[in-house]
């Protein structure tokens, strides 16, 4: 049976947005599991996402002691036979693939954040590296982003999705 994932990172709430965008909440409602790769900033974001379903997350470099007490630095879960690991930071893009192959030999997919740059590559060993970008803080990227994934029978089908900016209510 297929498992639907929402992959997000670097929400930086309330610094970059007051709340999660509606697109993220709708995607969370449609997912079986929400994976957040850190830099939540406010613990209320964990609680908000948990109202939409199960959350697997890690803390990031901008997360304080409250989030570090609730979340691990690295999370792991096997989903439909695929071994996932989640971490916030993987370091500089240069030689990332070799470093992550060495650091996560027991993972098939590594979800990470920190750079706010969407990323989908496969290392020489076959480790898939996924960074969903940020749904609230695009930095130098043209749009805000998130990823969805469907894990089924050992396969992982990923889509990068543009996140619409919510308009303030009148």
TrEMBL record:
Its cofactor is a divalent metal cation. Gene3D superfamilies: 3.60.21.10. Signal peptide: none annotated. It comes from the Bacteria. Its EC number is 3.1.4.-. Keywords: Metal-binding. InterPro entries: Calcineurin-like_PHP_lpxH (IPR024654), Metallo-depent_PP-like (IPR029052), Phosphodiesterase_MJ0936/Vps29 (IPR000979). This is Phosphoesterase. It comes from Microbacterium arthrosphaerae.
């Amino acid at each position: 049976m297929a498992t639907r994932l929402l992959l997000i990172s670097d929400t930086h709430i309330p610094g970059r947005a007051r709340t999660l965008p509606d697109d993220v909440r709708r995607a969370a409602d449609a997912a079986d599991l929400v994976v957040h790769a850190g830099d939540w900033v406010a613990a209320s974001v964990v609680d908000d996402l948990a109202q939409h379903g199960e959350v697997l997350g890690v803390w990031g470099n901008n997360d304080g002691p409250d989030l570090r007490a609730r979340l691990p630095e690295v999370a792991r879960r096997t989903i439909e036979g695929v071994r996932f690991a989640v971490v916030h930071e993987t370091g500089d893009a240069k030689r990332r693939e070799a470093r992550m192959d060495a650091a996560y030999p027991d993972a098939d997919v590594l979800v990470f954040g920190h750079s706010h740059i969407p990323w989908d590559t496969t290392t020489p060993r076959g480790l898939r590296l996924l960074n969903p970008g940020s749904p609230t803080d695009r930095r130098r990227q043209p749009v805000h982003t998130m990823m969805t994934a469907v894990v089924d029978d050992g396969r992982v089908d990923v889509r990068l999705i543009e996140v619409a900016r919510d308009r303030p209510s009148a």
